[in-house]
Amino acid sequence: MSRIGVFVCHCGENIAGTVDCAVVAEAARSLRGVVHSVDYKYMCSDPGQKLLKEAIRDKNLDGVVVAACSPRMHEPTFRAAAEEAGLNAYQCEMANLREHCSWVHAKGEATTAKAIDLVRIQVEKVKRNAPLRPIRVPVARTALVLGGGIAGIQAALDIANAGNQVILVERSPSIGGHMSQLSETFPTLDCSQCILTPRMVEVARHPQITLYTYAELERLDGFIGNFKATIRKRARKVDEKICNGCGVCTQKCPVKKIPDEFNEGLSMRRAIYVPFPQAVPNRPVIDTANCTFFKSGKCRACEKLCTAKAIRFDQQDEVVTREVGAVVLATGFRTMGTNQFPEYGYGRYPDLIDGLKFERLASASGPTSGAIKRPSDGKIPETVVFIACAGSRDEQKGVSYCSKICCMYTAKHAMLYRHKVHGGKAYVFYMDVRAAGKNYDEFVRRAVEEDGVKYLRGRVSRVYPDKGQLVVKGVDTLLGGEPLEIRADMVVLATAVQAQHGSEELAQKLHVAYDKYRFFAEAHPKLRPVETNTAGIFLAGACQSPRDIPESVAQASGAAAKVCGLFSRPELAREPIVAVVDRQPPPVFSHCVGCFLCRSACPYQAIEEEAIRTRNGEIIRTVAHVNAGLCQGCGTCVATCRTKAIDLQGFTNEQVFAEVVAI
Amino acid sequence: MSPEYQIGEGSLEALFAAITADGRRIWGPRAAAGCIEIGEIRSAGELARDQVHPISSAKAAAFPRVEKILSYRMDGKDVAIDDPPLPARPTVLFGLRPCEARGFCALGTILNWGTPDRFFNARMERTTVVSIACTRSDEACFCTAVGGGPDHPAGSDLLLHPLAQGGYDVVVLSDKGRALVALAPDRFEPARGAARIALAKIEAEFQAQEITEQLPRLFDHPIWSEQSLRCLGCGACAYVCPTCACFDIQDEADARRGVRLRCWDSCAFRLFTLHASGHNPRETQGQRWRQRVQHKFSYMPERLGVLGCVGCGKCSRACPVDMDFKEHLTEIAKFS
Amino acid sequence: MDELQEKAKQLLEAGTVQVVIGHAAGRGGRRPVFVRSPAQAGKLVHDDGCWQNLATYLGKPEVRKLGRAAVVASPPVLRAMVQLGAERQLGNDEVMALAVVTGGPVRTLATLAAIEGHLASLPDEPPAADRTELGRLAAMTVPERRAFWAEQLDRCVRCYACRASCPMCYCERCTMECNRPQWVPVASHALGNLEYHIVRAMHLAGRCVQCGTCGKSCPLGIPVHLLTLFAERSVQQHFGQGGKASGKPVFAMSTFRPEDSETFIR
Amino acid sequence: MGTSVTTPTPLKEGSTFEPKITAFVCNWCTYAGADLTGTSRIRYQPNVRVIRFPCTGRIDFMLILKAFAHGSDGVIVSGCHPNDCHYTTGNYLARRRWIVFRDVLEFTGIDLRRLTFAWVSAAEGAKWAELVDEVTDRVRALGPYREYQALASAGIE
Questions:
Q1: pLDDT value of position C248
Q2: Of B181, B129, B207, B210, nearest to B15 (Cα)?
Q3: pLDDT at D5
Q4: What is the Cα–Cα distance from A148 to A216, expressed in whole angstroms?
Q5: For residues C197 and C224, is the Cβ–Cβ distance under 8 A?
Q6: What is the pLDDT of residues A204-263, one digit of tens each?
């Protein structure tokens, strides 16, 4: 027989003004299982809490109902008080007499009657409460950062500088990402590599950061604090430890005609190469698809020339597994290819290029050492047309969102062009100019006002070659839709920012949600922007949605802060409001029939398989098991279970059923 | 037993009217969606008579499928129990087959084993059974194998024999039967020995005695799992059986009040013998099937001196997978 | 000896299976039979009188004890096997079906994939008679339907023949047997009966294989199968899944689409 | 006849029928929304009794029937709008359950005017008040749901 205590709070006049608290307390006293019932002016005050604690001790209560304000307000207060008095915190429930009763109803019998019902409902519930203990999960204080662009670099450094271990995995042979390809950065026009490379070096040198380049995540098992990452380090065919980065091999390799990815195909590289001079690590990699030796079994030139004897044609991929407590996704973005634009000639015109190509042309470390030259004939273009929103905000291209960075870098490109080619004419076709950000609009205005860039509001309908030039047909909607035609020497498309290749597969591998554009989805669009719906996996940078550098860095630091918060304690304590699958003594073992319909219903992949075995190890049956580390306590599985084998602690079937029946 | 009266086809309606006028309800075979069942009938026209048996059981008249045995209220912190008045509705069961009527003897014996069952007895006292002798039978019937027959008098208060000219000879078998006649005396003429329709011929393919003798040595025999392999473990057989008396006690309650109900139950259910520990003394369907046969043909004769089966074959007709009781019993009887 | 009997005989002779679950002649109609020797294969029949969904037997411990089983399988039996496989109640290595379509050839299907392939070509819908009946009920007003079911369910004695004969009702502990709390009254009064049949319909929504066996099994002829058929149809109409016509199993009620549409939520 | 295990519906002075409404709500949106109704002091009728769940996904359809069987004349089920679910997808699964459940109820002849589903966010305090008032008025007009409550005693000898 339960020993329940009921404590009715007046909340000054807030409750007592419309509810007759004495009557409520009196009514509660007559309920079965209630051995103590009082009303008091302010239950949350110190004397109020003292009242509660004393009653718990003196009357030896096994459950309390505090009839006061919303549990969303003071549940923690009273549960803590109960705990101090030696009662398990979860043996305390609240009846919401204020927000749900006194504040919304007129003074009168009906209101007091409702208050009594609300108390009775909670009494019936608390009779069936069980003591619960917070769930403790050990945390491996190592973070896995996927992606070595600026976001990944920032996150890795912040986490490592806080004293934690970091494993940074980058798919390409060097870290740096898109930022390393950029010439200057808006709105300050400082050189991208100048600000990035020190960070890259810092990562490489950092004692707490393990860097895996030319590597990919193969699989991720486990849950928050306890992931197991399987990483495949692709064979460079070069022994990184022995190689001294002299670079002879990359100059002597006879295979010369491979379009250079880093320079967006504007120059050629060898079959053994270092992506770019400042690459980290500065170690070459053999492109086995193009290497003569791997194609024909002959050559070995690099091997002969390597003074360090670091070439390893027989080197195999290496698969490593690491225990990690958290994961930061920073896999970045890609841009839409110019071949997606039939109206602009499917990218068949060499002088119609995308933004990244222009970055390489404008970059001092680029193929033209920063001189703006047409890819076709190396001639300096006298007229350049920049087309913004190329693909972005365009349903036909399957991109209805704004790529966010184009307005700014297009202004930057036009500006850089005007700086480098003084007599040159720069036109920008745009839909709107979106320059929200510190000093952004000023920057665009500078392009127009100081650098004389012509902004034309309208879309370009067609671009076609004519006598060595590109004819750009468009309209200026500000001049009443006046059709106009510009003969340009070069056209630059600000092509749409899109989700990185393979992001869908990765999302599925990690069980994180992604949107219809295959950008990773945050746990909450406003309040949990750097978390995913899978506990322990965080987001940084453009893998979530188009972002510029400062935003990516800010978000990376945000994600890092979340990770550091998680790592700040050796154990992770969580509310015990989680689902449990029942266990029974043999021969029943469990009422779970193992249909696993609950698994498809669980938003958190918290439902695992557990094999029930005989002493000598044979499987009797396989039943569901809830991973308390992953379960967030929504209870959807509970309502899905036909045999009622799953229940939700704190909201068990018996509790909620009793509440309903008590009405 | 010679008939005292005969009643014309045309007089049935008046008899029904008289019974109803006396404040009794009439239950009997009636056409219901998809089958002939036992239910309340208001006129002789509703009485179904061509079937060998209605699918459902007439036992519900005295042993309802759900019966309230008490109710209670929470009075502050105390409990106030109200005993329901004993069931009082007088009932006439009209048009049962003699075998089903005979079932009430076994049913009464088992329900009164030890403590008398006041609920059942109160209903039985107010129930008058009018059965009609069988002129037809089907391959599920085996009354003659268990000591019954197409015109067996046990359990009936009036027994009607169909006449060739229509109408029935009426054999009065009890005071309750006589009282029923008294409700419409002018409708019952003295019997004139009119030609009866011949009774159904039901060959006995075994004798109950053989089974009763066989059972003790067959307890651990594989025959049970063999015969019950296709059994689905539902309760259809028990719920249509005139003699199955097992029940479950259920409380339906909330924080303020509740009722205690007696509900039909069946030994074919896995849950029937499931212990709280999870252990089940009758784990397999074979064991549950054995219990059914043993109970009717061994335990009841042994402890109550009465067979638990009247050979009506209702269970066979109700079974979704054609567990044919006669066939199985014959197999057991002839087993050596 | 017909094709079915021949194929069953071969499976038994080859020792591929130890038992063939099929139908044989019974008193009046057909009854399930467990053929365990080649000699008995002649007992097997398949015609419209064979309406039990034999997949129901695959999970029964008494039947599992007999060894590997082949099932004489009409399309609903095959659908049941696929769904049972998806719900982890039937292992791929336990699958052996002698697929029969009235008038068609007998096909031996030894894997779930094979069954799915076979089903892909067959429609997944209730028998015509049931579709008509569903239509008739749909045409009724709500009070008319209430009256219809009140009359029908008042006759239910809760013998659970419908549950026992359903291949998808394999739970060791049915909701009906949960008593802490007692979700559904055990008593066969109007409330207990209505709630039992609503729960049954809800639990089979998206899982029902549309064999109608539950209705045919009811000793009192209550058309309880209409409830599960209706729930299944509701799932198919709203979510376009639940239909096992594709041969692919689905978990219609434990999955969702953001674009699922309704008109009743404020 | 047996007793129905239902409690009498509260009667106001003048003994006009006052319906009993049970509301099943999720903790993160509708419960918080109803709290906001309170903090904004928006008045509504006192007939509703709220039962708190972590998520609409937790609400077993049987609980709705239990509410009716145990004396509720009307039921409200409410949670986060699609996309706002605290648990990201619980309400989507709940929605599916409700879609089929309503169909099944209507097919068995249950009066859907007594069952109302809503999305009420934590910001929609006013909407909560309107919802409760509207449902209370509608159910008051329909009268007590004896029809369902009586089922518990129908068929008992």
A1: 65
A2: B181
A3: 39
A4: 11
A5: yes
A6: 999 999 999 999 999 998 888 989 999 999 999 999 999 999 999 999 999 999 999 999
> What structural domains and CATH numbers belong to chain D?
21-151 (3.40.50)
d(CA A298, CA A226): 47
C-alpha A292/C-alpha A313 separation (Å) is 12
Cα A475 to Cα A429, A483, A485, B194, distances in angstroms: 9, 4, 8, 112
pLDDT digits (tens, 9 = 90+) for A610-634: 999 999 999 999 999 999 888 989 9
ipTM of the complex: 0.94
> With an 8 Å Cβ cutoff, are C227 and D107 in contact?
yes
Spell out which residues of chain B touch residue D2, defining contact as CB-CB under 8 Å. Answer: 68, 71, 259, 261
Give the CATH number of domain A579-662.
3.30.70.20
- Give the span between the Cα atoms of C242 and C265, in whole angstroms: 23
Domain annotation covers residue C261: no
* Cis amide leading into D10 (omega within 30): no
Q: What is the average pLDDT score of chain B?
A: 95
Sign of the dihedral through C-alpha A478, A481, A484, A486: positive
Q: What are the distances in angstroms from CA A138 to CA A132, A223, A524, A567, A569?
A: 19, 11, 26, 10, 9
Within 10 angstroms of residue B153's Cβ, the number of other Cβ atoms is 18
Using CA coordinates, name the residue in chain C closest to D153.
C189
Instruction: Answer left, alpha or beta for residue B323, where phi above 0 means left and psi between -120 and 50 means alpha.
Output: beta
Q: What is the structure's pLDDT at C1?
A: 66
Q: How far apart are CA A252 and CA A272, in angstroms?
A: 9
Mean pLDDT (whole number) for A495-514:
90
Domain locations along chain A: 4-126, 142-234+317-332+500-567, 248-305, 333-498, 579-662
User: Based on the domain organization, do C63 and C138 belong to the same domain?
Assistant: no
d(CA D78, CA B328): 57
pLDDT in tens, A468-479: 999 999 999 988
**Weakly modelled stretches of chain B, pLDDT under 70:** 336
Q: Find, in chain C, the residue whose alpha carbon is nearest to that of B276.
A: C179
Strands, DSSP E only, in B118-193? 127-132, 158-162, 168-172, 189-190
**Amino acid symbol at A179:** M
Q: In terms of residue numbers, what domain contains B79?
A: 5-334
Average pLDDT over residues D30-43: 95
- On whether any CB of chain A is under 8 Å from the CB of B278, the answer is yes
What CATH number matches the domain at A333-498, 3.20.20.100, 3.30.950.30, 3.50.50.60, 1.10.3720.10?
A: 3.50.50.60
Three-class SS of residue D53?
strand
- CATH number for the domain running over A4-126: 3.40.50
Distance from CA of C18 to the nearest CA of A (A): 22
DSSP assignment letter at A101: I
Give the separation between CA A515 and CA B122, rounded to whole angstroms: 71
Give the C-alpha separation, D110 to D123, whole Å. Answer: 33
> CB–CB of A103 and D45 under 8 A?
no
Token pair 């051995």 in the structure block, residue: A35
Lowest mean pLDDT of A263-267, A530-534, A593-597, C197-201, name the range: A530-534
- Which residue, A648, A629, A660, is CA-closest to D58? A648
- Architecture in CATH for domain A142-234+317-332+500-567: 3-Layer(bba) Sandwich (3.50)
For residue B118, which of B84, B82, B162 has the smallest C-alpha distance? Answer: B84
Whole-model pTM: value is 0.82
- The predicted-structure confidence for A135-185, as pLDDT tens digits, reads as follows 888 999 999 999 999 999 999 999 999 999 999 999 999 999 999 999 999
Partners for B (CB, 8 Å, 3+ pairs)?
A, C, D
